[in-house]
Design a protein that fits this description.
alpha+beta; six-stranded mixed beta sheet; 19% helix; elongated
């Protein structure tokens, strides 16, 4: 049985490395605030910690790459089930 509080999302990470930008989409489900969830994903994307936060840039540093939470979009459970065949699912983090 599905938990009615669980919501499903497609999240996006933006990595900026000099003149190059990379976007990566991923799936996640959560019953908590999705903004907090995606921010934590951005922080840990390349093994970062809160110490790598750059308040002026609004992202996390990993070597010479700046990593941003580039947003999320809510999707239905049915869409989530189909998309997980094509995108990585990031499991609930502690």
């Amino acid at each position: 049985m599905n938990d009615p509080k669980i919501r499903y999302f497609v999240g996006e990470i933006l990595e900026c490395n000099g003149d190059f930008e990379y976007k990566s989409k991923y799936l996640f489900s959560t019953a908590t605030n999705p903004n907090e969830y995606t921010n934590k994903v951005a922080m840990e994307w390349r093994g970062g910690t809160e110490d790598e936060w750059d308040k002026d840039e609004g992202g996390y540093w990993s070597d010479h790459t700046l990593i941003f939470d580039h947003g999320h979009k809510e999707v239905s459970k049915e869409e989530f089930d189909v998309l997980q065949n094509h995108l990585a699912v990031i499991r609930r983090m502690k």
